[in-house]
Amino acid sequence: MLSLVRNEWTKIFKRVGTYVMLGLLILIIGVTAAFTKYDDSKAKETENWKQELATEIEGNQQALSQNPKMDKFSKKDFERRIAISEYRIENDIQPKVKETTWSYVETNAYLVIVVALFTIIVAAGIVASEFSWGTIKLLLIRPISRTRILLSKYISVLLFGMSMLFVLFVLSYLLGLILFGGADQSAHLSYVDGKVVEQSIVGFLIKTYLLKSIDVVMMATMAFMISAVFRSSSLAIGISLFLLFVGSNVTALLAFKFDWAKYSLFANTDLTQYTGFTSPLVDSMSMGFSITMLIIYFTIFQLLAFIVFNKRDVAA
Predict the structure, then answer these.
(1) 58: which of 9, 26, 39, 218 lies 20 to 30 Å off by Cα?
(2) What mean pLDDT do residues 37-54 have?
(3) Which of 158, 136, 285, 138 is nearest to 221 (CA)?
(4) Residue 183 and residue 114 in one domain
Protein backbone atom coordinates (compact mmCIF):
# COMPACT_ATOMS: atom_id res chain seq x y z
CA MET A 1 0.00 0.00 0.00
CA LEU A 2 2.85 2.39 0.84
CA SER A 3 4.36 1.98 -2.63
CA LEU A 4 0.97 2.67 -4.22
CA VAL A 5 0.52 5.84 -2.19
CA ARG A 6 4.06 6.94 -3.04
CA ASN A 7 3.33 6.36 -6.72
CA GLU A 8 0.15 8.44 -6.58
CA TRP A 9 1.96 11.17 -4.64
CA THR A 10 4.62 11.29 -7.36
CA LYS A 11 1.92 11.58 -10.03
CA ILE A 12 0.35 14.54 -8.24
CA PHE A 13 3.63 16.44 -8.04
CA LYS A 14 4.59 15.68 -11.63
CA ARG A 15 1.75 17.93 -12.74
CA VAL A 16 2.48 21.60 -13.31
CA GLY A 17 -0.95 22.43 -11.93
CA THR A 18 0.08 21.23 -8.49
CA TYR A 19 2.87 23.79 -8.30
CA VAL A 20 0.56 26.46 -9.67
CA MET A 21 -1.90 25.78 -6.85
CA LEU A 22 0.88 25.81 -4.25
CA GLY A 23 2.17 29.08 -5.68
CA LEU A 24 -1.29 30.62 -5.65
CA LEU A 25 -1.78 29.66 -2.01
CA ILE A 26 1.53 31.26 -1.06
CA LEU A 27 0.65 34.36 -3.11
CA ILE A 28 -2.76 34.72 -1.44
CA ILE A 29 -1.19 34.42 2.01
CA GLY A 30 1.38 37.06 1.05
CA VAL A 31 -1.29 39.45 -0.26
CA THR A 32 -3.39 39.10 2.91
CA ALA A 33 -0.24 39.76 4.95
CA ALA A 34 0.46 42.96 3.00
CA PHE A 35 -3.08 44.31 3.40
CA THR A 36 -3.17 43.32 7.08
CA LYS A 37 0.13 45.09 7.69
CA TYR A 38 -1.17 48.20 5.95
CA ASP A 39 -4.33 48.26 8.09
CA ASP A 40 -2.29 47.55 11.21
CA SER A 41 -0.05 50.57 10.57
CA LYS A 42 -3.10 52.83 10.86
CA ALA A 43 -4.47 51.23 14.03
CA LYS A 44 -4.02 53.15 17.29
CA GLU A 45 -4.47 51.85 20.83
CA THR A 46 -6.42 53.90 23.37
CA GLU A 47 -6.35 54.15 27.15
CA ASN A 48 -10.11 54.66 27.36
CA TRP A 49 -10.91 51.18 26.05
CA LYS A 50 -13.32 50.36 28.90
CA GLN A 51 -15.39 53.43 28.17
CA GLU A 52 -15.43 52.62 24.47
CA LEU A 53 -16.53 49.05 25.18
CA ALA A 54 -19.28 50.32 27.50
CA THR A 55 -20.53 52.61 24.73
CA GLU A 56 -20.41 49.72 22.27
CA ILE A 57 -22.37 47.48 24.67
CA GLU A 58 -25.05 50.17 25.06
CA GLY A 59 -25.34 50.53 21.29
CA ASN A 60 -25.64 46.77 20.76
CA GLN A 61 -28.27 46.48 23.50
CA GLN A 62 -30.31 49.24 21.87
CA ALA A 63 -30.05 47.49 18.52
CA LEU A 64 -31.43 44.31 20.09
CA SER A 65 -34.29 46.07 21.87
CA GLN A 66 -35.28 48.15 18.85
CA ASN A 67 -35.34 45.18 16.47
CA PRO A 68 -37.44 42.42 18.11
CA LYS A 69 -37.87 40.70 14.73
CA MET A 70 -34.13 40.50 14.07
CA ASP A 71 -33.03 37.20 12.49
CA LYS A 72 -31.52 34.68 14.88
CA PHE A 73 -28.03 34.83 13.39
CA SER A 74 -27.74 38.60 13.81
CA LYS A 75 -29.26 38.33 17.29
CA LYS A 76 -26.67 35.73 18.32
CA ASP A 77 -23.88 37.93 16.96
CA PHE A 78 -25.05 40.93 19.01
CA GLU A 79 -25.37 38.74 22.12
CA ARG A 80 -21.86 37.41 21.57
CA ARG A 81 -20.39 40.89 21.22
CA ILE A 82 -22.16 42.13 24.35
CA ALA A 83 -21.10 39.13 26.46
CA ILE A 84 -17.44 39.30 25.37
CA SER A 85 -17.24 43.07 25.89
CA GLU A 86 -18.76 42.75 29.38
CA TYR A 87 -16.30 39.97 30.20
CA ARG A 88 -13.37 42.14 29.11
CA ILE A 89 -14.48 45.01 31.32
CA GLU A 90 -15.11 42.79 34.35
CA ASN A 91 -11.78 40.94 34.03
CA ASP A 92 -9.67 43.87 32.80
CA ILE A 93 -8.77 42.21 29.50
CA GLN A 94 -7.97 44.92 26.96
CA PRO A 95 -8.80 44.08 23.35
CA LYS A 96 -5.74 44.21 21.10
CA VAL A 97 -6.08 46.85 18.42
CA LYS A 98 -2.68 46.12 16.89
CA GLU A 99 -2.24 42.91 14.92
CA THR A 100 -0.30 40.03 16.47
CA THR A 101 1.22 36.87 15.06
CA TRP A 102 -1.62 34.73 16.33
CA SER A 103 -4.41 37.11 15.35
CA TYR A 104 -3.03 37.03 11.80
CA VAL A 105 -3.01 33.21 11.88
CA GLU A 106 -6.63 33.36 13.06
CA THR A 107 -7.54 35.70 10.20
CA ASN A 108 -6.06 33.28 7.69
CA ALA A 109 -8.22 30.43 8.98
CA TYR A 110 -10.78 31.67 6.46
CA LEU A 111 -8.33 30.72 3.68
CA VAL A 112 -9.07 27.05 4.40
CA ILE A 113 -11.69 27.41 1.65
CA VAL A 114 -8.80 27.95 -0.80
CA VAL A 115 -7.18 24.73 0.45
CA ALA A 116 -10.52 22.96 0.00
CA LEU A 117 -10.79 24.31 -3.55
CA PHE A 118 -7.35 23.02 -4.56
CA THR A 119 -7.90 19.66 -2.86
CA ILE A 120 -11.19 19.27 -4.73
CA ILE A 121 -9.38 19.83 -8.03
CA VAL A 122 -6.86 17.08 -7.20
CA ALA A 123 -9.56 14.71 -5.90
CA ALA A 124 -11.74 15.28 -8.96
CA GLY A 125 -8.98 14.39 -11.39
CA ILE A 126 -7.08 11.61 -9.64
CA VAL A 127 -9.49 8.87 -10.78
CA ALA A 128 -11.24 10.44 -13.77
CA SER A 129 -7.95 11.34 -15.44
CA GLU A 130 -6.93 7.66 -15.47
CA PHE A 131 -10.02 6.90 -17.56
CA SER A 132 -9.65 9.89 -19.89
CA TRP A 133 -5.96 9.13 -20.53
CA GLY A 134 -6.57 5.39 -20.85
CA THR A 135 -3.99 4.59 -18.16
CA ILE A 136 -6.60 2.91 -15.98
CA LYS A 137 -6.06 -0.35 -17.90
CA LEU A 138 -2.36 -0.33 -17.00
CA LEU A 139 -3.31 -0.03 -13.34
CA LEU A 140 -5.93 -2.76 -13.34
CA ILE A 141 -3.81 -5.41 -15.10
CA ARG A 142 -1.42 -5.37 -12.15
CA PRO A 143 -1.93 -8.08 -9.48
CA ILE A 144 -3.39 -5.55 -7.06
CA SER A 145 -7.02 -5.33 -6.03
CA ARG A 146 -9.11 -2.42 -7.25
CA THR A 147 -9.93 -1.54 -3.67
CA ARG A 148 -6.26 -1.02 -2.81
CA ILE A 149 -5.71 1.04 -5.97
CA LEU A 150 -8.65 3.34 -5.19
CA LEU A 151 -7.73 3.55 -1.51
CA SER A 152 -4.17 4.62 -2.36
CA LYS A 153 -5.55 7.40 -4.53
CA TYR A 154 -7.88 8.57 -1.76
CA ILE A 155 -5.10 8.56 0.84
CA SER A 156 -2.93 10.61 -1.53
CA VAL A 157 -5.72 13.17 -1.90
CA LEU A 158 -6.02 13.50 1.88
CA LEU A 159 -2.25 13.84 2.26
CA PHE A 160 -2.25 16.60 -0.35
CA GLY A 161 -5.06 18.46 1.43
CA MET A 162 -3.38 18.17 4.84
CA SER A 163 -0.05 19.29 3.34
CA MET A 164 -1.67 22.42 1.90
CA LEU A 165 -3.33 23.09 5.25
CA PHE A 166 0.04 22.71 6.97
CA VAL A 167 1.58 25.20 4.51
CA LEU A 168 -1.23 27.65 5.26
CA PHE A 169 -0.74 27.43 9.03
CA VAL A 170 3.07 27.50 9.08
CA LEU A 171 3.47 30.25 6.47
CA SER A 172 0.81 32.37 8.21
CA TYR A 173 2.70 31.97 11.47
CA LEU A 174 6.08 32.84 9.94
CA LEU A 175 4.76 35.90 8.10
CA GLY A 176 2.92 36.99 11.23
CA LEU A 177 6.11 36.61 13.24
CA ILE A 178 8.09 38.68 10.72
CA LEU A 179 5.51 41.43 10.21
CA PHE A 180 3.85 41.72 13.60
CA GLY A 181 6.52 40.79 16.13
CA GLY A 182 6.54 38.30 18.99
CA ALA A 183 4.16 35.40 19.37
CA ASP A 184 2.98 35.93 22.94
CA GLN A 185 0.25 33.50 23.99
CA SER A 186 -2.56 35.91 24.78
CA ALA A 187 -5.99 34.69 25.82
CA HIS A 188 -8.76 34.14 23.32
CA LEU A 189 -12.37 34.80 24.27
CA SER A 190 -15.07 32.62 22.71
CA TYR A 191 -18.82 32.68 23.18
CA VAL A 192 -20.02 29.09 23.56
CA ASP A 193 -23.47 27.97 24.76
CA GLY A 194 -24.29 31.43 26.10
CA LYS A 195 -21.08 31.74 28.12
CA VAL A 196 -17.74 33.45 27.54
CA VAL A 197 -14.87 30.96 27.56
CA GLU A 198 -11.28 32.13 28.01
CA GLN A 199 -8.60 29.90 26.49
CA SER A 200 -5.08 29.95 25.12
CA ILE A 201 -4.93 31.51 21.66
CA VAL A 202 -2.46 28.82 20.51
CA GLY A 203 -4.70 25.97 21.64
CA PHE A 204 -7.73 27.67 20.11
CA LEU A 205 -6.04 28.10 16.73
CA ILE A 206 -4.68 24.56 16.57
CA LYS A 207 -8.16 23.24 17.38
CA THR A 208 -9.71 25.59 14.81
CA TYR A 209 -7.42 24.48 11.99
CA LEU A 210 -7.88 20.81 12.87
CA LEU A 211 -11.67 21.15 12.89
CA LYS A 212 -11.63 23.09 9.63
CA SER A 213 -9.63 20.24 8.08
CA ILE A 214 -12.83 18.17 8.40
CA ASP A 215 -14.43 20.49 5.86
CA VAL A 216 -11.53 19.86 3.46
CA VAL A 217 -11.81 16.08 3.96
CA MET A 218 -15.56 15.97 3.34
CA MET A 219 -15.48 18.14 0.21
CA ALA A 220 -12.53 16.16 -1.17
CA THR A 221 -14.34 12.89 -0.42
CA MET A 222 -17.41 14.08 -2.30
CA ALA A 223 -15.32 15.18 -5.32
CA PHE A 224 -13.44 11.87 -5.20
CA MET A 225 -16.73 9.95 -5.21
CA ILE A 226 -18.08 11.90 -8.19
CA SER A 227 -14.80 11.34 -10.05
CA ALA A 228 -14.91 7.59 -9.42
CA VAL A 229 -18.61 7.20 -10.26
CA PHE A 230 -18.90 9.41 -13.36
CA ARG A 231 -15.29 9.22 -14.64
CA SER A 232 -15.39 12.94 -15.43
CA SER A 233 -13.00 15.35 -13.74
CA SER A 234 -14.80 18.40 -15.17
CA LEU A 235 -18.12 17.17 -13.79
CA ALA A 236 -16.58 16.39 -10.40
CA ILE A 237 -14.84 19.77 -10.22
CA GLY A 238 -17.92 21.66 -11.40
CA ILE A 239 -20.39 20.04 -9.01
CA SER A 240 -18.01 20.09 -6.03
CA LEU A 241 -16.97 23.73 -6.46
CA PHE A 242 -20.58 24.78 -6.98
CA LEU A 243 -21.57 23.06 -3.74
CA LEU A 244 -18.49 24.40 -1.94
CA PHE A 245 -19.45 28.02 -2.63
CA VAL A 246 -23.23 27.74 -2.76
CA GLY A 247 -24.09 24.81 -0.47
CA SER A 248 -23.39 26.53 2.84
CA ASN A 249 -25.17 29.74 1.80
CA VAL A 250 -28.28 27.90 0.64
CA THR A 251 -28.26 25.82 3.82
CA ALA A 252 -27.99 28.99 5.93
CA LEU A 253 -30.99 30.49 4.12
CA LEU A 254 -33.01 27.32 4.68
CA ALA A 255 -32.01 27.30 8.35
CA PHE A 256 -33.82 30.64 8.82
CA LYS A 257 -37.13 28.87 8.25
CA PHE A 258 -36.64 25.10 8.55
CA ASP A 259 -34.95 23.09 11.27
CA TRP A 260 -34.54 20.14 8.90
CA ALA A 261 -31.73 22.10 7.24
CA LYS A 262 -29.50 20.69 9.98
CA TYR A 263 -29.47 17.34 8.14
CA SER A 264 -27.68 18.91 5.17
CA LEU A 265 -24.01 18.07 4.73
CA PHE A 266 -23.10 21.77 4.61
CA ALA A 267 -24.73 22.49 7.95
CA ASN A 268 -22.31 20.12 9.64
CA THR A 269 -18.92 20.36 7.90
CA ASP A 270 -17.79 23.44 9.84
CA LEU A 271 -17.27 22.07 13.35
CA THR A 272 -15.81 25.38 14.54
CA GLN A 273 -19.41 26.50 15.00
CA TYR A 274 -19.23 24.71 18.36
CA THR A 275 -16.02 26.39 19.53
CA GLY A 276 -17.09 30.03 19.28
CA PHE A 277 -15.56 30.65 15.85
CA THR A 278 -19.09 30.83 14.41
CA SER A 279 -22.56 29.89 15.67
CA PRO A 280 -24.59 26.72 14.91
CA LEU A 281 -27.09 27.15 12.09
CA VAL A 282 -29.84 25.47 14.11
CA ASP A 283 -30.13 25.76 17.90
CA SER A 284 -30.80 22.05 18.36
CA MET A 285 -27.52 21.07 16.70
CA SER A 286 -24.58 19.76 18.75
CA MET A 287 -21.05 18.55 18.11
CA GLY A 288 -22.18 14.94 18.49
CA PHE A 289 -25.02 15.44 16.02
CA SER A 290 -22.72 16.97 13.38
CA ILE A 291 -20.12 14.23 13.77
CA THR A 292 -22.84 11.59 13.35
CA MET A 293 -24.13 13.28 10.18
CA LEU A 294 -20.59 13.56 8.78
CA ILE A 295 -19.97 9.85 9.40
CA ILE A 296 -23.20 9.00 7.54
CA TYR A 297 -22.31 11.18 4.54
CA PHE A 298 -18.71 9.94 4.56
CA THR A 299 -19.89 6.31 4.53
CA ILE A 300 -22.30 6.95 1.66
CA PHE A 301 -19.62 8.69 -0.43
CA GLN A 302 -17.09 5.91 0.15
CA LEU A 303 -19.54 3.09 -0.56
CA LEU A 304 -20.59 4.69 -3.83
CA ALA A 305 -17.00 5.29 -4.92
CA PHE A 306 -15.64 1.83 -4.08
CA ILE A 307 -18.68 -0.21 -5.18
CA VAL A 308 -18.95 1.52 -8.57
CA PHE A 309 -15.19 1.43 -9.17
CA ASN A 310 -14.96 -2.27 -8.33
CA LYS A 311 -17.89 -3.23 -10.54
CA ARG A 312 -17.11 -1.01 -13.53
CA ASP A 313 -16.12 -2.67 -16.80
CA VAL A 314 -13.13 -0.84 -18.31
CA ALA A 315 -12.52 -3.22 -21.22
CA ALA A 316 -14.03 -0.85 -23.75
Answers:
(1) 39
(2) 77
(3) 158
(4) yes
